[in-house]
Input
Amino acid sequence: MRPSAKLALTELYPPSAFTGFEGLQKVVKSNIGRLDKGGEDQYISLKHLGAKVLFTYFPDIETLIIKVPARQHERAHRLLDQLVASKLTSMNVGFLEFMPDGSATYTGPTQSQKEGDSVRTNTQLRPQGGWPHFVIEAGVSESMPRLRADAAWWFSNSSGDVKLVLLIKVDTQRRVITIEKHDRYQSRPTWTKPSPWIAHRLRTITLNQGVTPATCDVKVPSGRATGPPLTLEFDLVVGRAANPPLEKDIEFTAAELLNWSAIVFQ
Output
């Protein structure tokens, strides 16, 4: 299997043949209608596209993946991104060091292209058009395999320049939000292949607004979770070491995350 086919999850979600933009428009409208009625599949995967397009595109396998935004999906990543920005502003971090660039399209070594939901770049360290430092990707409840593939795309295609990815899965039916925190590590190289950058899940936070009182559950691969439910390392988000005492890692309490998740479902 080609690397792009693995990242595009073509075995799990076989792409449909692209027949033209008129047909694509009908498919998008139909998918929006299903989302409005409570549907949970917000992705459209297409193959046999001969031209370069936006969203997530793999030219070597001629496959385009389109994610149709849903209201809770947009609220989730935009509000959390704003909360992170607010905490950095309180540390007097300059705007240029946490520049939003959500509409930008990023191109990998195989010419595959992707737009992130919320991306941030320290533009004092990286020129215009460089890879972001911090990315948030969000989706509705059936899209966690897609979201993990998104994290893998960012780390592998940026050769590790993307340092931290948050994945947000919104289950609108159960009123549950799951956050996964991913950083990257470099696997062991071989004689024939360079060492690729691989996504590494650090923590899973489950926020349940479907019960009373709402709950915040934290799990880590190594065992018992300690500290705040969500900590974003300053150097991974901003791309440089913190200057204490004002600058420090970005922490979210359970109360802050539960308040954010409640707003997402309003």
User: Anything to note?
Assistant: The CA atoms of residues 72 and 176 lie 11 Å apart. Confidence is low (pLDDT under 50) at residues 50-54. The helical segments are 3-7, 21-36, 71-90, 144-157, 234-238, 254-264. Residues 71-264 form one domain.
